[in-house]
Amino acid sequence: MTKFANSVKKFMVSEDGPTAVEYAVMLALIIVVCLAAVSTIGTRANAKFTAVGGYLT
Fold this sequence. Notes:
Layout (H helix, E strand, L loop, with lengths): L1 H12 L2 H41 L1
């Protein structure tokens, strides 16, 4: 029983779980920001290419 209590105590003191969750949340936020930036840049680039194509024809 002492071995089980020690393993539970060790698990409760360990900070690996919360750290992994924090990194996962940060990664998700970074991905969302990157997708938004790429979407905005893509929309603006498409409009610019369309404008240039209109001038060429």
